[in-house]
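From the thread on structure requests for the teaching lab: each student submitted one protein with a one-line request. Submission from student K.M.:

"Model diguanylate cyclase from Pseudomonas fluvialis, tokens only."
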Amino acid sequence: MKVLFDSLSRRLGSLLPGELLPSELPQLLSPARHSLLLDQRRATMIVNRVRLFALLFAVLTPLWAVIDIMVFDFALWSGLALFRLLASSAFVCLLLFYRPSGDLFDAYRAITLLFAIPTLFYVASHTLLGTHQLSEFSAAVATGYAFLPFVLMAGLAIFPLSLQENLALASLLLLAQGLAGYLGWSTLNWPSYAGGFWLLILIAGVTALASMSQLAFMITLVRQAIHDPLTGILSRGSAEEILDLHWACAQRNAAPLSLAFIDLDHFKAINDHFGHEAGDRTLCDFASHLQAQLRDSDSLLRWGGEEFLLVMPNTDLAQARLALQRLQQRGFGRRPDGQALTASIGLAERLHDHASDCRSLLELADRRMYLAKQGGRNQVCGHHAHSAWQPANLLEEREP
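Reply posted by the TA:
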């Protein structure tokens, strides 16, 4: 089974962008492992494309009524026109009142509404058409209504969706197609219906691949945009978005949020004595060593040079102190000469420090990092100006 899975993974990877890492393949199957930044950007893109789709349907849906009035009697035309007017109004509301918020659940709601509106219109119009006796010409025109599920299914291809998300939406369209067949079972041409249903499943498979390909490109582009090319961790360019996301989440849930500013001690001496390549290797080793010990919810960013920022959501000051103490005890790696690599760390926490916004919290952690350096390095400074503590000799906090 493992051999089969590995073979399928390699074949899937060969169909997707070459820059996609093997470790990122599971992100194509489910959104559970997506980063906050990827979710935010993907949610924004989905809602924007939903609104574009809604604009197109809002314009085209009522225009087809001109064709209907030429081939159907007035009673049937008026019923279909009413359905078209309601659907078009719903599309207009979706266009005007839905704005991207960066929240993935809002995006799910938007895309569900987008596909629910024409699906309901399809079921209602299919049922209404089945209650009228149609001439050969009007029956031929009425078959155009049967193509709506195929249009909707193909429309999924414009959204960057994981396989799990795509299957959920495709299942709703297949369910609607099945419901329409059930409602008209007495007059249904079963061979034609079965062939159409099979074609709809085939289109669902093609759109799933197209959506996953879009998602693969987005994963690659977001990774390249927000990650430091040297260490592979998040870059300073992504810091503002990450901090804003964590701050908004902490405020919404009245939760703690801790920031730790980390500066590697005497790093300039590494570059001076061993060269910049040795310095780069030290930075990479430190980043990978630290990243491996963090929780999935934590975010490690390279702030610049030998400075790093650690974002710890749902972590109060005491918990952050203990976490940093464990990291110090395990060590941050080695310098090129074999000596232990140490760091000066400034710690700040949203609730404990009564920070008004994430910028002030960041500045506070930065100032405390400099206090840790001035206090002798290889220590953490948090809360008060003189509350630095060291891994081997923790100092009790005291009032200045």
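TA comment: Residues 234-389 form a domain with the Alpha-Beta Plaits fold (CATH 3.30.70.270). The beta strands are 234-235, 257-264, 299-304, 307-313, 343-349, 380-382, 388-389.
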